[in-house]
Structures are given as C-alpha cells and as structure tokens.
Amino acid sequence: MLQALYDIQIQHLTCDGTNYPLAAGTTDVNSGSVDTQNFGGVAFLVALGDNADTATFAAKLQQSDDDGSADDWSDVAGSAISFTAGASDTDHKMIAWDVRAPLKRYLRVAFDRGTANSVIQALIALKYTPRESPVTQATGAGQFIADKIKFLVSPAEGTA
C-alpha cells in the first residue's frame, strides 16, 4: 500500500540552479539535478505562473551518469514539451513528466523561455519506488521544515 510520505521522496528543486521560483523572463535555464539512485522512478511537476501573451516556452529532461562532471548532460528522448502562451490559457497551470526506470542516475529539467516573459513558480521532483522504505524527507534549504511532517493513520475527529 502506497503511503506518499513514506514511499515517495519529495524534492523541491531550484529552477535555475539558484532560485526556487523563477521570475518573469526569457532566459534559458537548467534546474537543479535529481539523484535517482535507490529509486525506481521520478516524476517532475512544474507549476507555471502568469505567462505573457505570445511567450514561447519549451522544456525537456536531460540525464547524466555523474551529474554533468565527466558525462555531459544529454536529452532524454521523447521528453520535449512546448507551447506558445495565449492571453491566459497557460497561466497558473502545470506540466509534468514521469520517468520510470531512468537509464542514467541524474536527471534535470532544461527550460527554454523566449519571445515574452514566462514564469516558473515551482519545480517539484517526486522520487518513487524506493529500495528501502520509509524514505527520509530532506530538511535543508528549500525543503521541509524539520519535525513538521505529520503521519496520520485513520485519524479521528477532534482538536487538530
């Protein structure tokens, strides 16, 4: 039986290697990387912000054996997502990928923003099917507040 916080490790990624939300802009950026070792797969969720009319947006996954050290980042086949924003049709919506059994240990998202401003509000990675359960949730910068994760099983009504 799946128990999300026991069986899925949640990682809040920087959108450009430094910033968690990414302000309106047209620069191309690469996200922080996800180490998939000891997990069967990872899903990426991108929450978009208020995108300007006519903004062009493309994103793809990239992979590496060693986080880009000796094995440079290469594109993951079939992972490209792109659109041209209308007046509001892409505002505050999400895009996602799910990679089951990745062929290389590290994955990241490469964003190509052009023409007009697009905003990335958040980038979340959900690493699933761990080799050992329960998983430990990270509590560093941009992650969970230590001791502020609640596990409830068949909770009764009453004072929170």
Task: Kindly summarize this structure in a few lines.
The chain has one helix spanning 4-7, and strands at 9-12, 22-25, 29-30, 34-35, 39-48, 56-64, 74-75, 81-84, 94-100, 106-114, 118-130. It is an all-beta fold and 160 residues long.
Q: β content, as a range?
A: 35-45%
What quaternary form is this? single chain
As a whole number of angstroms, the C-alpha radius of gyration is 17 Å
Just name the CATH architecture.
Answer: Sandwich
What is the overall silhouette? globular
Please provide the count of β strands.
11
CATH topology: Jelly Rolls
Regions with little confidence, pLDDT below 50 for 5+ residues: none
Helix content: under 10%
Question: How would you state the average pLDDT, rounded?
Answer: 93
Query: CATH top level?
Result: Mainly Beta
Largest β sheet strand count, sense and barrel closure: 6 strands, antiparallel
Helix/strand-derived category reads mainly beta
Count of domain modules? 1
**Order of SSEs:** HEEEEEEEEEEE
